[in-house]
User: Fold these one by one.
Assistant:
Number 1:
Amino acid sequence: MTHFLKDILRQPVELQRTIELFAGTNGAGRATLEAAAAAIRSARHVYLTGIGSSWHAALNVGAMFYQHAHPVYLLDADELVRFGAFPRNSAMIIISRSGKSTEIVQLARKASKAGVKVIGITNVPESPLGKEANHAIVVPIALDHAISVNTYTTLALAVGMLASSVVQEGSSLQGLKPSEKGTGAPELKLRPGKDSQLAESLSHAFAEAGRAIPAWQELIAKSVWLKPHSAAYFLARGSSLGSACEARLMWEEGVKSPASSMGTGSFRHGPQEIVNKGVRFGIWIDVTQMREQDFALARDLRKLGASVMLIGQKLPEDAGDLVFQLPAIPAGWQSLIDIIPAQLVAERLAGLSAVDCDTFRLSSFIVEDEGGLLPKEAKNSEDSAAKDAASE
């Protein structure tokens, strides 16, 4: 069993631990989360940022802010470091699993010097981000072996809980009320004091996702969707857009194969010209928005010879070549579990492609310097070789 798969399998438990940390009056992280939410609500300008997998978590949670008329500036950490100037009365949510990436460290210091209230969300309390932040929200889980799995979803959950507290403009987390119409999945409702319902709903979804993993693995083992060295495109909307981007990154890091990701709507404005026989598509279906239109897109892609994987709630079994049914989870929170099937596919495809998904050839686990791709040892070795050749 790969380390990647081991990390995937423990994910429902880690998500449950995280919800217990921040939900309810006895949650150890509750007070810090509420203080951070108050700082964000009092700010005139709010930034939401990260880099790598953490940036994808920011994309997912950004939709929650926008859907509740609480806009945030979404820009990745490197762009903010190089090109951002921050107005007064600003707050910045910075997400980073290690809290040590060079862009994250530089950005936190730059924001602090500008008088910005920094909310750091990280898995490592003693990190530079944790120390620099005005409010450090720490999710103390076991770090992943290589590819970000638990560090991705647990940080996304923590940021989601923070966003939920901010947008309901109250001191406690918003609860949930089952929907009486639509798909049957519960919807987010602004009901202060009912945060236990949110915790229960998410906990149930995490447990059901964990129980679904063996069936998902059986589907994957039998599916012809998995084909080594094929072109892959990942499409999503709203709170799952980060899931599509994260899947693309897993293909690049774990399968060692190029891939693309974008909004489903954006794909229909030009990029569809690449569609031909053999191209693999992964499409995340939102629980409330544009479902029939996205099913129509999947049908057309298949008619054109492409192979389609669908991930979502209450999907027709024949809507794709590989269909993953998700358990009910509130609208806006689906991204916490809709990445799991894609993780399982990436791990299996790496094996079929005869590549090591547990080892990075070029990338560091934590990028603490700037410029180039090769590790310092390799650069020094090449420089020495070049000098020796020049002297001969």
Note: Residues 213-352 form a domain with the Rossmann fold fold (CATH 3.40.50.10490).
Number 2:
Amino acid sequence: MGPIGSGEAGGVETHLLSLSPILAERGHAIGIVAPAGSVAPEEGVTLYPVPGDASPSATRAERSARTVVRTGGLLENMWEQALRLQRRYDAVIGVSYDWLPFYLTPFFSTPVGHWISICSAMDEVDSMIERRWREGGLRLAMYTGAQARTYAFLDEGAGVQLLYGGVDTTVFQYNSQPRERLCWAGRISPEKGLEDAIAVACALDIPLDVCGKIQDDAYWQAVMRDAGGQVVYHGFLGPAELQRRYAGARATLATPHWIEAFGNTVIESMACGTPVVAYDRGGPAEIVEHGRSGILMPAEAGVAGLVAGVRAAGGLDRRVVRARAEGFSFDRMADRFEAWVESVVGGVG
């Protein structure tokens, strides 16, 4: 959790920044409660900045980790603000994965929906989600079926709205002439598996462009010790500069060591015509069409499988890759989100 625009929240930030203006243009009043220091998406969207200390990320927590509710914590302050603001809006939408929002849901008079941003990660959080789910009336949205299936009590995800992600195809533009480079983009944190992408670049002797915010400096220093001069680090990039890195690559590597809920970098790369080589699990496996818009390799195949995948990706038609991405526009994502929010307001699970 971090300020919108900082890169701390990865694809969640991208989707909030992109969806909010579209919904505002459609006549909806949009307010976003976010950490202090956040960037307002656009005029017409009201930002409510909130101070406080962020809790440790669930993406790096043990399954048995305990949840601690704290006076003055960032999440606690954000939900207090939502309680104060709720009567100004027709619905409150939580975009998170934490114990507190689900505990508080029955105390709101305004309908609450939860867009869960990651796969199942902590038993204590899952137990609270399950409790509210079995009480009835909990309105849930997730990115993909693969994400929903990580929550065992959901019975294969029945009753959960799948929103998928989106990409701005006017910014992430097609390029037919890549260079002999590879690309990797994402939060630089152990669960993202950057070391696998570095190993692939070293095995193929191809430069690797790495783009993203360093969230774990010790991890970054550790993986760079084995980089062998192949890595060029570009930092946390805006969309236009990130597009250049994707578009100039022979392939983009997606190497998560956990179940990725969606994989925004996957769809951004594909919009540039650059095929994705990814492990065959989680959200990327629902986006990439193996042998057409990218290559999916079993996770147990490891680096050797990814090396073979990069070689195979060179034979794919980049126009077909781009065409697949065009099916994930932000307007289509906004359609799905709008319909789901209407069901939350109407009391439909």
Note: The mean pLDDT is 91.
Number 3:
Amino acid sequence: MKRKDFLSSVLPATALLPPLSSLASTIEDENALAVIPPYLKKGDLVGICSPAGYITVEEIQPAILKLKEWGFTVKIGNTVGKKDFTFGGTDEERTKDLQEMLDDKNIKAILCARGGYGVIRIIDSIDFTQFIQKPKWILGFSDATVFHSHINKNFGIASIHSKMCNSFPADWFAADAVQRETIDSIRKCISGEKMQYEFSANTNNKMGMAEGKLTGGNLKTIESLAGSKSDIHTAGKILFVEDTGEYLYSIDRMFWNLKRSGKLNRLKGLIIGGFKNKKDDEGDEFGKTLEEIVLEKTKGSDYPVCFDFPVGHQKNNVALKCGIKHQLIVNTAVCTLKETR
């Protein structure tokens, strides 16, 4: 083949590749400071919608009362009270409701009414154009992990992993201290307080200190996003994970997914939250504890690993700012996670 013919055959393919300077800027952007939506002040409007599971208007009343007590006003989305089997309305209804809240310039934060399942069915139908131009806080956990991963990765916009409307106690004064503190952590987050949490150390922890953007959420949901444009980006970050209702062998499989896909390779730190394991009905024991599963996958790594962090499908589920820099300190007695931005 003549040289000019060879060049003409390869140029169209190589012309599609971005220049090295563009690749470098992409890597730099991944490590840039997050875009932080405006923090809320008294009088600001909070929208409540059901992008996943079904919930009634009555069930969100405790959350509405507390939000108003904090000084905010509330807009209830059209999906609250709607039901399409397990969903809070059809895919089209949930998409339309969320889209309207994202585009409503008066709404400063969107609180998911509950989790369940459904966000992955509508995420590709959402137009984030106006949201990118005027970011607002999106709050929720469990199935809302799809939102956190998608907007953190694609737009570099911070979000809040937190309890949702169905977790607010009906009687605030009858609620215990943990319930009140975790709900109040939502107020602190959206109001702009720098968050800091201290918790008791687990004997299986790997000691150390790390600093990086915080990312994570429900482990099963993270696994379901693998290979998609919502896939979580973990390099250079502190990753937190939690889950519920899974067999230990399933948890092991999900951690193998994290390891084999390279998501554990370049971490700054790893936080293991609450894991409510399902018992094998047939009595077959998996043979490894949660701690052993995690330590096996992180063997040889030099970043800190901590267990029993207060996040997940449990009463002690604190609000966390995804996409914002935090410092993780894992000591023998007390562990600390604090916002450093």
Note: Residues 177-191 form the longest helix (15 residues).
Number 4:
Amino acid sequence: MGVRLALLALLFILSFAPPAVAHPVPFSYLDVRIEPGAIELTLVAHMFDIAHELGIDPPDRVLDPSVLISKGDAVLALLRGRLQITAGGRVLSEGTWSAAEPLPDRQSVRWRARYPATSAPGSVTVTATLFPYDPAHQTFLNFYEGGALTSQAILDRSHPQLEYFVGDRQGVFAVIRKFVPAGIHHILVGPDHLLFLVGLLLLGGSIRRLLLVVSAFTAAHSITLSLAALNIITPPARLIEPAIALSIVYVGVDNLMVGRGRDVRAWIAFAFGFIHGFGFANVLREMNLPSRALGWSLFSFNVGVEIGQLLVVVVVASVLIALRSRNEAAGRRLAFAGSLAVIVLGAFWFIQRVFFLGGIT
């Protein structure tokens, strides 16, 4: 009996509660059509978001043609300031926008725009934070070429930008221009991969031998990089990052223990290159690999990594050769001290990544 009375009291209270006002659809829609000589846009925004920006209540007044006539330019100026389209590295600003068009069946408002493009862009970058007042707001992004839907994505507060590569020769060139420098940059600023490589070079040798070592490393990491980027094999970073640190320790220890036996550094580079490839893949995932140009982006990134590695080989090998040609004993001392430093840093990164989760990628 007590439970029934409690339920009746709750229903009585709720009957006097004011209706809650909630954001019904926190989405916008942006279609980008890449046509010969132009880029066309279709932007659809929900009336709730527009009403919030204009201070209109109730929100459905936004769909009144008279309101759109008086307020349409203001809201369009607001949205254009929060939307940027870049084609081939050039920000498009000379676009022609239509008047606001109410869509009562979708509770939304639509605009259309056309930006002239004098040449094939190669890539189109969209940056949009249309309604920053709402942290959950998302913009559904669709790309069309030749009238066919070719790519879809979602932009939100944490990912407000997307670069789309056009499916022609100019698009391939744009992929190469982006991912080759990215590969060079990553190997040159990635301390763990760089230290592993330097550790392999400390014992010196002919340029041909050192290039073989680097090429073995590239061949191995290219395999696992591709497998991980294609989501075929994706081991967790909590295992890969400590393993990369241990590979650095191993190289330093091997340098100290090696005698006058056979030089197996190329095999070491090949074996541990598989592990480093998974580390490279973590970086690529953050770059939003273009699905339509996945092969070219993987190839270009690997080419960039190889170029960066060859730069390291040239610099390190030149220094070691110059030092040994003047003083062989000094060269051996440098290799010994350098190997100790490699061991210490590798051990530090291993402890850091296992116990403190502060991994370096």
Note: Residues 171-356 form one domain.
